[in-house]
Design goal:
CATH class of chain B: Alpha Beta
Number of helices of chain A: 22
Strand content of chain A: under 5%
Helix content of chain B: 40-55%
Number of helices of chain B: 5
Distance between the termini of chain A: 60 Å
Number of strands of chain A: 1
Radius of gyration of chain B: 15 Å
Largest sheet of chain A: none
Oligomer: heterodimer
Distance between the termini of chain B: 13 Å
Structural class of chain A: mainly alpha
CATH superfamily of chain B: Response regulator
Largest interface: A-B, 24 and 22 residues
Number of domains of chain B: 1
Radius of gyration of chain A: 33 Å
Strand order of the largest sheet of chain B: 2-1-3-4-5
Helix content of chain A: over 70%
Shape of chain A: flat
CATH topology of chain B: Rossmann fold
Structural class of chain B: alpha/beta
Chain lengths: 414, 149
């Protein structure tokens, strides 16, 4: 019923409608009553009608009143919460920037349970700051028992309470919560699994690296392999590993039992994170039997901006792959081959059956220096395939290598 | 010759939709001696504040509702003369290289990833301000005597 924005306008409109209805029904009730008092004879049906009108007017008046009071109380509570949040934020910032050690804060006598605004403030700050300041804030959570309270609620049977606890742990990034979060990756509800893997990834990101299956990265990988998660969710969680992503991705690639679906995500993530030092690690999938994985490998290499020398022949062969989306990604990656190798291989692809492969080939040629641009320009005018000529013109226009008048001329020739 | 301003006199503008982040940055900067800090949680106010305050450095969040950091940089671009150096330090939780590339080409000069380390933020701010002041000094020295305005 309530939206974040436009609450006031909604209330006013509703009140105007209800107010109008109430007034109309009130006036009707009054006229009935005046008629009774004036001695006008009334039938039982008129009595029932009067009662209906009066009750409807009363109901509308009550609903209108409820809307007003709800809005008023909500605003009041929001303002009070914002005030408390500001107060607690200032207090926690003061504590975070002070010289006290995290151990002394956590070791001080346990205090009363913190109000909601205080927990909210400390969790928000933990999303913004790490290092010594973050450690002091985490010590606050330990001192007030918030960490234990959140870990209890992670196992709660109540879904909302559980999701709130997972979200809070994701902000707090408490190392002691990792095991509890990873257990939730087996939860039957997808939303729980999704939130848990995000929170777990953020937690692994701040934990000191520890090799082996019992380290945070190893535990995360084991949980990820068996969890039923969508590719996008896994990829997001891998991105959330921040500086730990490289090590985890390397361990995942080294796993001989890695499912293909997870391997695809790993290849995508390597590319998206620009981990150029992993180009060698991923290059062995360029010949994978699954075309999705071959394409993902070339897409990653394109994003990394490098093609290992030993992969040149494989990449050239992939330009003629029977699957179009492999040819497309191979054509993109070919921009990072030596020009003398790429030029003769890419030029024929300007006449590819696939529009996207033609486009990728033309774009890659245009990136291969003067010789590449000359090839595209030549293709724009003399290529026997009209689709190839048009694509070449398009790419030259986009790269500002051709003025529109010449482009029209070239198309005319085409 | 222009005297190099004190680092702590630098005017710093903070733009972040999260009030908690803004207050945190203000306190960190205050504690480090900075006295000229202004901030807003409303990205739509960034350009107006820039005009009024003429900051030496902008700390900018990238992901904000309505007007995001990229749009703010676009607005500021029209206000910054081509021969001046206004450092924009991006504060973001987004570590994707394409986002960094996009922000750098939009005018950002450096990045700090959230959650950030206080020391790292202060060092980056200090480095950017040093560059800013050196640039201002160079520009001032380059103007022939009697023509400085």
């Amino acid at each position: 019923m309530w939206r974040r924005y436009g609450d006031a306008a909604y209330t006013l409109v509703t009140l105007a409608i209800f107010g109008f209805e109430t007034l109309a029904l009130g006036a009707l009730s009054l006229s009935f009553l005046l008629g009774k008092w004036a001695g006008v004879t009334s039938t039982p049906i008129e009595g029932v009608l009067l009662a209906t009108v009066v009750s409807a007017a009363s109901a509308l008046a009550m609903v209108g009143l409820y809307l007003l009071s709800y809005q008023f109380v909500s605003k009041l509570r929001d303002r009070r919460h914002a005030g408390q949040l500001d107060t607690w934020t200032e207090r926690w910032i003061g504590l975070a920037l002070a010289d006290d050690s995290a151990e002394s804060i956590a070791g001080s006598p346990r205090s009363r349970r913190l109000p909601r605004a205080a927990v909210h403030a400390v969790l928000s700050l933990l999303e913004a700051v790490k290092g010594e300041e973050g450690d002091r804030l985490k010590a606050v959570l330990a001192r007030h028992g918030v960490d234990r309270w959140l870990l209890r609620h992670v196992a709660s049977g109540h879904l909302t309470a559980r999701l709130d606890a997972i979200e809070s742990l994701g902000k707090a990034r408490l190392p002691q919560s990792l095991d509890s979060l990873l257990v939730l990756l087996e939860h039957p509800k997808p939303v729980v699994r999704r939130m848990a893997v995000r929170a777990a990834a953020g937690t692994v990101a701040i934990m000191p690296p520890e090799p082996g299956p019992d380290g945070p990265g190893g535990k995360f990988i084991q949980a990820l392999k068996t969890a039923d998660l969508k590719a996008g969710v896994v990829q997001e969680s891998l991105l959330l590993l921040e500086t730990k992503a490289g090590a985890v991705l390397r361990d995942l690639l080294a796993d001989p039992d890695l499912p293909d679906s997870l391997l695809w995500v790993v290849l995508e993530t390597v590319g998206r994170l620009g981990l150029a030092d992993m180009a060698e690690d991923i290059s062995r999938y360029a010949k994978h039997e699954d075309p999705e994985l071959r394409a993902a490998t070339f897409r990653a290499l394109h994003r990394l901006g490098t093609v290992p020398d030993h992969l040149q022949r494989t990449l050239l062969a992939a330009l003629n792959d029977e699957v179009d989306f492999v040819r497309i990604q191979a054509a993109h990656a070919a921009a990072f081959l030596p020009a003398e190798v790429a030029l003769p291989a890419l030029e024929p692809r300007l006449g590819d059956d696939s529009w996207w492969a033609r486009r990728a080939a033309a774009a890659s040629l245009a990136r291969l220096g003067d010789d590449g641009v000359s090839t595209v320009k030549r293709a724009a005018q003399t290529h026997p395939d009209q689709a190839a000529r048009e694509m070449a013109v398009q790419i030259l226009l986009e790269a500002n290598l051709l003025d529109p008048a010449t482009a029209r001329l070239a198309k005319g020739v085409a | 010759m222009m005297q190099t301003p004190r680092r702590t006199d630098a005017r710093i503008l903070v733009v972040d939709d999260e009030r908690v982040n803004v207050v945190l940055l203000e306190r960190i900067l205050e504690q480090d001696g900075y006295t000229n800090v202004r901030s807003t949680t409303d990205a739509y106010q960034a350009a107006t504040l820039y005009d009024e305050f003429e900051p030496d450095l902008v700390l900018l969040d990238l992901h904000m509702p309505g007007l995001d950091g990229f749009a703010v940089m676009e607005q500021l671009e029209g206000r910054i003369s081509s021969d001046s150096f206004l450092p924009i330090l991006i504060l973001t939780a987004d570590i994707r290289p394409e986002i960094k590339r996009r922000a750098l080409s939009a005018g950002a000069k450096d990045f700090v990833t959230k959650p950030f380390d206080r020391t790292e933020v202060l060092l980056r701010i200090q480095n950017l301000l040093e560059t800013r002041f050196l640039h201002l000094r160079f520009r001032s020295d380059a103007v022939p005597e009697g023509r400085a305005t």
